């Protein structure tokens, strides 16, 4: 099956299509770490973009994004800026901020360092490749309410999309039986909506924990033995959540 889906006249991967679905039309959109500006180009070609800002910190990706925008003849609508994280933006300039294709800790760090740039931002659309728990914790701590979560499988890999708006950060977590720390890991909206790929996510996490445990069990260092017990507890937690999900689905 093809991993491409058409968004206007620009093809996006399933991962980026899942990101694009959460971007309201007619907004000023900043894509931080823009991956050749392909998301903004596709939104523009679909008539969904007011104005776009592609941010890149490194010279090579910045040049590639500039080339792609110029090739698409969209310099009038999409600016490519070089800078670290949200420093490419003026306060209040963007209505939607997208950060996709990075680790969760890095996304949280970018948001933390650019906190003042989030004033008047309507929506955050975040797609961490790993460590999504760091993203949910950051949003909860800083007064952003989760209003959308999605899982999409592309080339055998599960990707998670998390979107948030200013609001009560506790609201999405009140309707789930999961403890708060567990909900940060699992995803409260994924749980409430019984997302069809959520069980696959739990299984993948358990497989990863089993691999780590297998490595730790053969290690002799005292710190490895200490971590072994911690990881065993974590595995039991994920097994319990899987069991709850399977029971609720029956």
Automatic annotation (TrEMBL):
PANTHER family: TRNA (ADENINE(22)-N(1))-METHYLTRANSFERASE (PTHR38451). Keywords: Methyltransferase, Transferase. The keyword Transferase applies. Its EC number is 2.1.1.217. The lineage of its organism: Bacteria, Bacillati, Bacillota, Bacilli, Bacillales. GO terms for biological process: methylation. This is tRNA (Adenine22-N1)-methyltransferase. It is an enzyme of class 2 (transferase). It holds the Pfam family TrmK. InterPro entries: SAM-dependent_MTases_sf (IPR029063), TrmK (IPR006901). GO terms for molecular function: tRNA (adenine(22)-N1)-methyltransferase activity.
